[in-house]
Amino acid sequence: MNNLQRNKVNKLIKLIVTAILEEVDEEICVINKKKLWVRKWIDRRDKLGATNCLLKELALEDPKEYFDTLRMSESCVNFLLMKIHSQIQRKDTLLRSAIPAITKLQAVLYFLATGCSLRTLTHVFSAPITFDYQH
Fold first, then answer.
1. Helices 101-114 and 63-70 sit at what angle, rounded to 10 degrees?
2. What superkingdom does the record give (predicted)?
3. At CB < 8 A and 24+ separation, what contacts does 66-73 make?
4. Which of 31-35, 72-76, 95-99 has the highest mean predicted lDDT (pLDDT)?
């Protein structure tokens, strides 16, 4: 094989490799678009979830209703949060923000006060609620 043929073969190999790499990149993009790490409505919990909307308003405007909702005053909730914050707060990751400790505490108190379903808690607090605990 002379140099001219070798150059043609090398160019052909480069074209094939480039085409394969582009195809693989497209497939990876399609796969990555299908993954959903955080649902859009859950991602808005900082603005629209019960912790930052409803319960904040109740605490400011109607403390009695806040008490009726969680069966605890805001000061008691804050005291309890101070005591357990380090045990229930997780760290944010590159993929998603951790559910704030206050949201977890209020969701548990709301559940204990109302006995509502986990699906309802998820919708009210805009957070995927699971009661996983460590021994």
1. 80
2. Eukaryota
3. 69/110, 69/113, 70/106, 70/109, 70/110, 70/113, 71/109, 71/112, 71/113, 72/109
4. 72-76
- Please, are residues 122 and 93 in contact by the beta-carbon 8 Å criterion? no
DSSP for 68-133 reads HHHSS-HHHHHHHHHHHHHHHPPPP-SS-PPPPHHHHHHHHHHHHHH---HHHHHHHHTS------
Distance in angstroms (rounded) separating the CA atoms of residues 101 and 87: 9
Mean pLDDT of 68-97: 90
Write down the pLDDT at residue 65. Answer: 92
> Average per-residue pLDDT in the chain?
79
Under a CB-based contact definition with an 8 Å cutoff, are residues 90 and 104 in contact?
no
Q: Break the chain into its structural domains and give their ranges.
A: 1-35, 40-125
